[in-house]
Input
Amino acid sequence: MNIGFAGTPVFAATILDALLASKHDVSLVLTQPGRPAGRGRRVRPGPVESLSLGQGLVVHAPTDLRGVETRLEPLDVLVVAAYGLLLPKRVLTAPRFGCINVHASLLPRWRGASPIEHAILHGDNETGVSIMRITSRLDAGPVYRQATLPLTNKSTTSSVTEALAQLGGIEIVKVLDHAEDDALDEPQPQAESQASYAPRLSNEAAQINWRGSAIQIERHIRAFHGRGMAFTTLQLPDRNVRIRVLEAKLVERDGSPGQVLAAESEPVIGCGQNALALRTIQLSIGKGRAMSGTDAVNGFAYLWRSGTRFENPEVLQDA
Output
């Protein structure tokens, strides 16, 4: 098949790599423009653009999609994965067989921008990928294939994103390979009554609210691992210290939410129910590197005095 691809981050680049290794011809790539990065704030191409240019592909990075349909009309299908722009109807109907999305959830559960994070936040036992036809309604199109990935108490957004990208690459190639008489199989409609939504999470949403239970907060930490990291703030007389929490462990101990209960081998912080031991953290002071909770206790003992209390946001986040 003559296919195009639309995507931007590493998740999408992994899927594009699978398509390039298949028997299908990727003749065009759409991606979002590069963004300033690093200390010099130089504009750098995203992962999909970098991969595409290295493979000698035709790459377009429009800021909007007006007129792009003319480039898509020669295609059999446009494959989309984490592109970041909504496709207007004229784009959806431009390729011969329309547009297909690789979505990181088991639709109709977790339609929307942050399906992996919400699956972890809500304690789902599994997630997966859905290969679906894109329609005008958000992630509501019929589904060609699905594949499942188990979730454990070690799953993070970072690890799940990587695993689902690999799985998504396998499944989209299967959909294209299974095309008979130069046409795709008929997809199956979603069960609307079972739909749930995963709205985009803001950077501020990463702040830990210690009034939640230790189970909720531990999920919160894993859900933001890979997208800015969960954080908490300590107000000192001369400055605020932001602490990113990369890993934590449930401790069956009660105490006031946000209060340091112990600082022996690791800092232990009280939650709304039980407590959490901070196993790996990153401080906004010192060298700013990730360190074990033990090293944090040894190197910054004044942060973990018994009774010290971390800030709570005003609104308890839904988890």
